[in-house]
Design brief:
5-stranded mixed sheet; alpha/beta; single chain; 20 strands; 38% helix; 21 helices
Length: 641
């Protein structure tokens, strides 16, 4: 069974109140409450479900059953509706205004195929008179009516093998919780969960660094998976830039300046100064020595985060730990005394491991009691050798024959993407502690291409396993996908390609899987790419003059304009897109209104000279408007004469 959403009536959730929303292009559903002809006080609920008789061809990939555009201005409730259909549909505790005795008044309609026949199910909230709704309903033959307490997918057995995906690139710091059947790839969710993935039992990694690291990994995995496919709608990068990060070097300089006020730093001030003096060679001279530059950047990072930073817990458990770190620092300086890098990383690692062995044998170390046995505590993640080994793995692969370095310079290097690139990035990822020492980027991409790469790489992470909190198993063959303002930061030229790219890419990422897709947007390009029966238009309700006790919904459904598919963008902006005629900037609009009042002889807050009028009209970019204003100006001149 592969259910498809058809309709939701929301009794009350945030700014949505007593609103019905058609969610499927196949059906037109209406729900009203009318006065009983015999009892004017009693309201009779009337539900109408009609099958749309469309002869339009199927416009999307065969595996995309439907695309629904939810279109409206900011504040119209688009994201609230998506939140209700995703997060609230998995946790009714989020719906504080909805839950309560006698207030279960949602109506949810979905469709499944049974033996090749479409079957509608109407789930009626328990606070409705169920028999009345079924009695007065107009619905296709065979429609099944059932009671529900609340709108929760887990209450419906038909959804047990369907997963719901929610994507949004908006970050407003809202906490979002994943559920078994709800897969989150929103920025709000990933910013927090990426930090958990990069911490890996170490000290917590910075939130933004964590998200940057994991976003780059998702993008790299997607690029490597699809880079050789010739039928992709977007061009994928063939190389990646690796830039050296100078934050740790600056941090070490700051530590030297603060050393006299810190007893811990004062003991290593001389070592820090010696290290930085050795590292102050002209980096342009080392431009062709990428191995040396990378080592220098990494060991700045290593010293800053692992040697010069104090860990009081480890120091208290291992009395010799501070001396061990100083010994490692001195060895590092000795091996790097020429300022040309460390020729043999194995020698450094062997020395560190030997010092760690001495520490762990110290009888003064803290011990742990397990039953009748008292055992010494091991260094565990505090072992510096672990981090050096991880860096060595990354370093050796980067400068091996398996990696093609295109160009190297004082700021970083560029490598050709190949089958070892992902392994290379994972090795870098494993070498991290708290922050980063390199920055990875795709230099060939425009902002629009990078936006699509972020979008599709997050979807791909659901099947690649990168996002371990949200995985789509291979046996799942029915997905309901919500993309909330996915085109928000795109230039209009990229917004015009959004539906096309979604149609091309998602069936490739989820092969042989039925996809029902919802896309919220305020862009007219989304509206012009979908027929009217695939659109849900919403508008904001002005509540500024209504008392807080009497306010109605913040957003409501409005009629969809006729023939949106392939419609002129400017017509959509001015007539259908809630801009109230403002398909130009507000300053330009107000200036032109003042000019029109002036030309019509009306009282205006501003007057214009004839020279200013000519110059202003010539500056207008819209040909039709420019022509009409010239006509008015000619009439104005004749009237003046």
């Amino acid at each position: 069974m592969q259910p498809q959403l058809v309709y939701i009536y929301i009794h009350k959730y945030k700014g949505l109140s007593r609103q019905g929303f058609n969610l499927n292009s196949k059906y037109q559903v209406n729900f009203t409450q009318e006065s009983d002809s015999l009892n004017t006080i009693q309201m009779v609920p009337r539900l109408s479900i009609q099958l749309r008789h469309s002869i339009l061809p199927h416009l999307f990939d065969p595996y995309i059953t439907d695309i629904r555009g939810i279109i409206g201005e900011n504040g119209a409730g688009k994201s609230t509706l998506m939140e209700y259909l995703t997060l609230v549909g998995h946790d009714n505790n989020l719906n504080y205004g909805h839950i309560g005795a006698g207030n279960h008044k949602d109506i949810f309609i979905y469709e499944i195929q049974v033996n090749g026949v479409n079957q509608l199910y109407v789930m009626v909230g328990s606070s409705w008179q169920f028999e009345a709704i079924e009695q007065f309903a107009t619905a296709p033959i065979g429609t099944q009516f059932s009671n529900m307490d609340d709108f929760l997918y887990e209450e419906f057995q038909d959804f047990s093998k369907t997963k719901i995906i929610y994507y949004s690139n908006v970050f407003d710091n809202k906490i979002q919780v994943p559920y078994n059947d709800l897969k989150l790839i929103s920025t709000n969710f990933l910013v927090r969960k990426d930090q958990e993935q990069t911490t890996n039992a170490k000290v917590q990694v910075n939130v933004l660094d964590s998200h940057k690291i994991m976003e780059a990994r998702r993008q790299l995995e997607f690029v490597l998976q699809y880079r050789n496919q010739v039928k992709l709608p977007i061009d994928l990068p063939t190389e990646i830039h690796i830039l050296y990060n100078s934050i740790s070097r600056q941090s070490l300089s700051n530590k030297i300046n603060a050393a006299d006020e810190s007893p811990e730093l004062h003991t290593i001030k001389t070592l820090l100064t010696t290290w930085l003096n050795n590292a102050n060679d002209n980096e342009l001279f080392l431009a062709n020595k990428a191995e040396v530059l990378l080592q220098r950047v990494y060991f700045h990072y290593f010293i800053d985060n692992l040697i010069a930073d104090e860990n009081e817990v480890v120091n208290s458990n291992f009395p010799g730990f501070r001396s061990y770190k100083i010994a490692v620092f001195k060895k590092l300086i000795a091996l790097n005394s020429e300022g040309n890098g460390i020729a043999n990383l194995n020698e450094l690692i062997a020395f560190v491991e030997e010092e760690e062995h001495k520490i762990e044998l110290n009888p003064e170390n803290q011990k742990i009691t397990l039953g009748d046995n008292t055992l010494p505590i091991g260094l565990g993640d505090a072992k510096l050798s672990n981090y050096l080994k991880s860096f060595k793995d990354f370093y050796e692969l980067l400068f091996s024959q398996k990696t093609e370095i295109i160009v190297a310079g004082p700021l970083g290097l560029s490598i050709r993407l190949n089958k070892t690139s992902l392994d290379l990035y994972i090795r870098y990822f494993n070498s991290l502690f708290i922050t980063t020492y390199l920055d990875f980027s795709f230099p060939e991409l425009s902002s629009g291409e990078l936006g699509f790469l972020t979008l599709f790489s997050r979807f791909y992470s659901l099947v690649s396993g990168t996002n371990r909190y949200s995985v789509i198993e291979s046996h799942v063959k029915n997905l309901i996908i919500f993309i909330d303002e996915g085109d928000l930061y795109f230039h209009p030229s990229w917004q015009s390609k959004f539906i096309y790219y979604i149609n091309q890419m998602l069936p490739k990422i989820f092969p042989n899987t039925r996809l029902q897709i919802f896309i919220s947007s305020h862009s007219p390009f989304i509206a012009s790419d979908l027929p009217t029966n695939h659109l849900l238009f919403m508008r904001r309700i002005d509540q500024s003059n209504i008392s807080s006790d009497e306010r109605q919904a913040a957003g409501e459904v409005m009629n969809v304009p006729n023939r949106t598919f392939g419609a002129n963008i400017h017509e959509l902006l001015s007539h259908s897109f809630f801009m109230k005629g403002a398909h130009i900037g507000e300053l330009a609009k107000q200036t032109l209104f003042q000019l029109l009042d002036h030309l019509d002889g009306k009282k205006s807050i501003r007057s214009f000279s004839n020279e200013e009028i000519v110059a202003l009209i010539e500056e207008i970019g819209e040909p039709w408007m420019r022509s009409r204003l010239l006509e008015k100006f000619e009439i104005y001149l004749r009237r003046q004469n």
